[in-house]
Amino acid sequence: MRLTEHPLLRFERGREVTIYFNGRPIKAYEGETIATALHAAGIRALNYSVNKKRPRGLFCAIGKCSSCLMVVNGIPNVRACITPVEDGMRIQPQHGRARLPEKAKPPEFRDAKVVRADIVIIGGGPAGLMAAIHAADAGASVALLDENPRLGGQLIKQTHKFFGKREQFAGVRGVEIAKILSEELRKRENVQVFLETSAVGIFQEKDEKLVFAVRKNREPVEFRGRAIIVATGAMERSIPFENNDLPGIYGAGAIQTLMNTYGVKPGDRVLIVGAGNVGLILAYQLIQAGVEVKAIVEAMPKVGGYFVHAAKVRRLGVPILTRHTILRAEGKERVERAVVAQLDGNWKPIPGTEGTFEVDVIALAVGLRPSIELLQQAGCGVRYVRELGGHVAVRDGWMETTVRGIFVAGDSAGIEEATTAMLEGKIAGIAAALRLGIAGEEWLKEIEGAQKALDEFRSGPFGRHVLEGIKKAMVVGG
Ligand SMILES: Cc1cc2nc3c(=O)[nH]c(=O)nc-3n(C[C@H](O)[C@H](O)[C@H](O)COP(=O)(O)OP(=O)(O)OC[C@H]3O[C@@H](n4cnc5c(N)ncnc54)[C@H](O)[C@@H]3O)c2cc1C
């Protein structure tokens, strides 16, 4: 299941270590996550549901859902998808709700390490990285935290070249953009980076804003700043169908993480649900990795993604079945096949049109929703905006939310692209430094430049609906 050759990627694996799954030794490499190592060993059922004891497997692979919670060294509720392996780790599937081991105590924030900076940034994807780089250049001290073990967010798995303008990395692969931005960040001495660090709450104490976080599943850390930028990205959606929780059903991004970041194949034969850009790009990335793509099913009457991506996939022999959906997954402990059917004009399956695909993987590329939990908890105003993918924080043209000093950027502000995430990050980073009186007025023109670039990017056919959404998400008069 581990990839040794790939037309575009080289996988640099760390030192070989041994982890134990239910007592059984499993080979793993330092730098990869528990879920990756278990997948490479063919283990898919990571967790069992509370009531019906149904097996569950990896779904998002970025720490946003509960599908991969496992018991690690006796500690329950560990997200196997973002926790790196350590030599000698003892791992068991979690059965139902977590029970704390007798002697364990939840971490005490009273004893937490305190980190101070002018601006605290949550999320090290393209939005958070650009926010940090520009806030630092504008003179602010910055603390950036990310719960994944690597910087770059979704970019670290994008092997395709980006569209857009040259100054926004058009023609460069996402993985390369992640490297460029991370290196830029590391050059700035006024930025501290904390990886494997999950923000769990935002609070206000007098003039300071607090971000409570947990590092490496055990160490409480308290970040104190005068402004916060939330750039937590998005969460993959699922859709209702029979057995949609079987191990082997993944969000599209999870497959990219396994395959493109860690060099592990998700399986051998795949059905993709959704023919937007993500589904189409995933199809040819799977083929590049030597995995067979049986078909893409799409409920809409036409393909949603760019024509070039669809043409490429069709040339590679993958049928795209529009007006089709998945009815059910079949299999006992893992996916063994998928049943699909044609839809009528009222989105109802047409009896007699069912077809079966013998697959071991079903990839759901059915969209994302913004991750706004922390913003909501902090009391920021939130609105449902369909065009932006769900509930989003109300904000102004500087990306400041209704809570003064809390800014938002990227997919957590509305589902778009890395290009817009980077521009919004730049705006939020500079705006936060201006708001704190750290940046001088000369930075205003940088904000205006980024706003202009956003408007241009969104003026294309795919951007117009986003513009509608942004109008709805704006503070009245903002
Ligand atoms: C298959 C696919 C193809 C794509 N192709 C393109 C393309 O061609 N061009 C393009 O422009 N865009 C593309 N995109 C979209 C692009 O990747 C995203 O829009 C972009 O990554 C969003 O950036 P972000 O910084 O907002 O979020 P993300 O990249 O998701 O980063 C968010 C970060 O926040 C961290 N985080 C979240 N919650 C917490 C927390 N509580 N505590 C600490 N850290 C946290 C996460 O670990 C993550 O690293 C594609 C996306 C996919 C899935």
TrEMBL record:
InterPro entries in the cross-refs: 2Fe-2S-bd_N, 2Fe-2S_ferredoxin-like_sf, 2Fe-2S_ferredoxin-type, 2Fe2S_fd_BS, FAD/NAD-bd_sf, FAD/NAD-binding_dom, Metab_Enz_Cyan_OpOx_G3PDH
Keyword Oxidoreductase listed: yes
PROSITE patterns: 2FE2S_FER_1 (PS00197), 2FE2S_FER_2 (PS51085)
Pfam families in the cross-refs: Fer2_4, Pyr_redox_2
Source organism, top-level taxon: Archaea
DNA-binding listed as a keyword: no
Keywords: Oxidoreductase
Domain 2Fe-2S ferredoxin-type, residue spans: 15-97
GO molecular function, one term: 2 iron, 2 sulfur cluster binding
Protein name: Sarcosine oxidase subunit alpha
